[in-house]
Amino acid sequence: MNNDIFPCLWYDGDAKQSAEFYCKVFGGEITADTPVVMNIDVFGQRLMLLNGGPQFKKNPSISFTVLCDTEDEVQKYWDQLIDGGMALMELGSYSWSTKYGWVQDQYGVTWQLFFGEKEGEQKIVPTLMFIHENNGKAKEAMELYTQTFPDSKIGSILTYGQGSEGHDIQEPSESVQHAQFIIDHYNLYCMDNSYDHQFDFNEGISLVVMTDDQQQTDQYWNTLTADGGRESMCGWLKDKYGLSWQIVPKKLIQLMNDSNQEKAYKVVQAMMKMQKIIIQDLEDAYNS
User: VOC domain: from which residue to which, for each copy (predicted)?
Assistant: First the structure.
């Protein structure tokens, strides 16, 4: 499983409580514990929790589907996640699963708990909802993402025309009800939705991509910011659909974690001024 791509969740000071909560719910462990960044390992997958401040709120445009082995497992997670949270789709039996529910937890993260046929080993699968001006573009987005990253492919696609029961609004028949795709060995789901939700993609949930070198960094950055995407600061960008990515050279993490705190601080200061991360400039700062 690829741990060079992983989700980042944005918090306003409560990342640590949330990290401890998910480790309890899913049996994970905390692998990095700093005031700004918490990393947790859940089912062998990395999740990053970032204390970024009050600017961004997490929302269901990106949810996390948890593929459960038994109905009891669904129930176990549901009972814990609903505590202080709310149901977006009640726990029950649906055409696509005998035991399924969609819940927003007390920290604003949404989970789709699913018992049924699994695709691959990855247990937690980020699920992208294409809404508003992106509605109908899920297939196009999958094509962009699978062309951008190596070892990628589009898997199953179910359109609304093929299976629309359980949905109260008439979606265009060619729109995606559920699809699965892989970027660099990392499994994702997506869907189109024409409902006028009060939310859309934002920085509250982003996808982090750890890169090996400047060439890879440049390639991902240039491809994802093209055609209406936009550059942000510190390795953050938004693609043409408004989905946030962090393109992070592994060298940055290595230099920031250097035992010489003065050098590490210089690296951080240099990084704070950058949009796309330039590895050579980080090394120059480190050696200055």
Answer: 4-116
The residue type of 11 is: Y
| Residue-wise DSSP of 48-75 | EEEE--SS----TTEEEEEEESSHHHHH
Q: pTM, whole model, 2 decimals?
A: 0.95
The string of pLDDT tens digits covering residues 6-59 is 999 999 999 999 999 999 999 999 999 999 999 999 999 999 999 999 999 999
> What is the mean pLDDT of the segment spanning 89-107?
96
The DSSP call for residue 229 is: -
With cut-offs at 50, 70 and 90, classify the pLDDT of residue 95: confident
CA dihedral 216, 220, 39, 273 (to 10 degrees): 90
State CA 73 to chain mean position distance.
23
The structure tokens listed for 133 are 């001006």
SS3 133: helix
Domains in the chain, ordered, with CATH? Answer: 56-192 (3.30.720.110), 212-287 (3.10.180.10)
263, two tokens? 């050098």
Q: Which H or E run contains 217?
A: helix 214-225
- Spatial separation of the C-alpha atoms in residues 32 and 252, rounded to whole Å: 16
Give yes or no for a contact between 66 and 43, defined as CB atoms under 8 angstroms apart.
no
Residue 43 near residue 28, CB atoms below 8 Å:
yes
